[in-house]
Design brief:
Blueprint (H helix, E strand, L loop, with lengths): L2 H12 L19 H6 L10 H21 L3 H7 L1 H14 L14 H6 L9 H19 L8 H5 L7 E3 L4 E5 L3 H11 L8 H4 L17 E8 L2 E6 L2 H11 L4 H8 L7 H17 L3 E3 L9
Antiparallel strand pairs: 1-5, 2-3, 3-4
Helix pairs in contact: 3-5, 4-5, 4-7, 4-9, 7-9, 11-12
């Protein structure tokens, strides 16, 4: 076996998904014994077999990636419960293994995966999906790019046919539950050392977080970074439609028209909302010149 063959062999074995009990699989997908494979390139010692020595690396790899995802979703863990949450993360990583140089991207598809697998959410499925979406929006808002916002001169030069960019870190969400308070509450009440999967830490117990009662209530959120902190801000449905249209490349006039296409607001109320929306977006630097340059200082 050449060095390259050895490296590929071990990488395949170390990255092989664990069993539901978080142990190394006894056989490959083709039915070949992992006991024999491990013995072909790992020596046993006086305490551990070749299989057991390989299993240490296999489990530690998976505990690390499970932990990396779990740290981004503490409120989802609280909603689902540790056992169901760990099952979700293990199933998710089997379907979406690490494919990036950074562990930061591991959880990107978790909200979408959960939405398509109601068995993990049960009666709280819709609530769990909303929590997952908001928690991932927090990650994206925290470290996505920052562009120089419109200057006062840029803003004064805007006309109905002008187009603007939105800050890449601004996340826009339409949710079925008011999960902003829930997520903030869980993060406030969960010790930092406890924001980790039980599967990764192998602790027998975990601090239980008391969840507030949740009733369905459609809300619209802008999740954004301001002075190096992430904030959730509730906005009107029309605000979300307006900002989404601008992000899609519509002109200001087209975005306003699209935002109020089905509204029951009076003309005066629409005007006030547009003024408030653009004032808010300008205050937080959400609007950027079309073709604005990137700056990583915030």
């Amino acid at each position: 076996m050449t060095l390259l063959e050895l490296q590929r062999r071990m990488a395949e074995d170390v990255c092989r998904p664990l069993t539901p009990e978080f142990r190394m699989q006894p056989r490959t997908e083709d039915g070949e014994s992992l006991d024999g494979i491990a013995a072909s390139y790992i020596r046993p010692n006086d305490r551990l077999s070749s299989f057991e020595r390989l299993e240490i690396y296999n489990r530690q790899y998976w505990f690390r990636v499970i932990s990396a995802v779990s740290e981004d979703f503490p409120a989802l863990s609280a909603v689902l419960g540790s056992k169901q949450f760990d099952a979700l993360i293990l199933a998710y990583l089997r379907n979406h293994p690490s494919s990036s140089w950074t562990l930061r991207d591991l959880g990107r598809k978790l909200p979408e995966f959960l939405e398509g697998h109601a068995e993990f959410g049960g009666r709280r499925h819709r609530l769990a999906v909303d929590v997952a979406r908001l928690e991932w929006a927090y990650v994206d808002a925290f470290d996505s790019r920052y562009l120089e916002p419109l200057s006062p001169d840029d803003a004064r030069a805007l006309g109905p046919e002008s187009k603007v960019l939105l800050q890449p870190h601004l996340q826009l969400l339409a949710l079925a539950y008011p999960v902003d308070d829930l997520v903030l509450g869980v993060r406030r009440d969960t010790p930092e050392v406890d924001i980790v999967s039980n599967a990764a830490s192998r602790r027998a117990t975990r601090t239980r977080v008391k969840l507030p009662p949740m009733r369905r209530q459609e809300i619209f959120l802008a999740v954004h970074r301001y002075e190096n902190s992430v904030y959730y801000r509730r906005i009107a449905k029309e605000d979300l439609a307006l900002l989404s249209a601008l992000r899609a490349g519509r002109s200001i006039a087209a975005a306003v028209s699209e935002a109020f296409a089905q509204t029951r607001l009076s003309g005066e109320a629409q005007l006030k909302l547009v003024e408030r929306s653009f004032t808010l977006a300008s205050e937080f630097g959400w609007l950027c010149p079309d073709g604005g340059h990137e700056w990583n200082g915030q």
